[in-house]
Specification:
Radius of gyration: 21 Å
Order of helices and strands: EHEEEEHH
Strand content: 15-25%
Number of domains: 1
Shape: elongated
């Protein structure tokens, strides 16, 4: 699992069909005492920690169960299912981060255009300071998200371990980042 991205992900190849894998995961979560809850829609599942242990940076693990014929690892005939797993923050937090990134990018673009106009007219392009502030703002936001991932690391491992304990058999190949 890559931890230097905004939304770390990994792929889990399995030797049983998608519906069987989903059933195994649901039955594991029903009988375990770990603080994990799930939501399912077709072949998509979302795993989160329960509200009792949830905090601002708590991760969500989004799972897509695909037939191996459509996945990259279809060359191995023992693999029937490929689970694409992606960590993300709560949807409201993710939306807020993306809105701020978009706002900074838009402000930076218009400030760059303003600076270009200033420079073209022979003035000092003071609007470049706004561009610099927007770039630093994006860097700061990325840094904050990395701190959030560090604070959520234990819960990320809890969700990933539960997924692997429920689905992986000794015949399955290891997970891929």
């Amino acid at each position: 699992m890559s931890t230097r991205s905004l939304r770390p992900s990994f792929r889990l190849p399995l030797s049983h069909p998608p519906d069987e894998a989903i059933g195994s995961l649901e039955s594991f979560l029903d009988r375990t005492d770990q603080p994990i809850q799930s939501q399912r829609a077709g072949r998509h599942m979302t795993l989160t920690v329960t509200p009792a242990v949830r905090h601002f940076w708590s991760p969500w693990l989004n799972l897509e169960f695909e037939n191996a014929e459509r996945a990259e690892d279809a060359a191995d005939t023992a693999i029937h299912t490929s689970v694409h797993a992606r960590f993300s923050p709560a949807p409201s937090l993710w939306t807020g981060f993306m809105a701020v990134y978009f706002s900074l990018a838009t402000a930076g673009f218009f400030a760059a255009m303003w600076a270009l106009a200033q420079w073209t007219m022979g003035n000092r392009p003071l609007a470049l300071w706004v561009v610099l502030a927007c770039v630093l703002g994006c860097g700061g936001l990325w840094w904050v998200s990395m701190i959030g991932q560090r604070l959520a690391r234990e819960q990320m491992h809890l969700l990933q371990d539960a997924l692997e304990n429920a689905l992986v058999s000794p015949a399955d190949p290891p997970a891929q980042s």
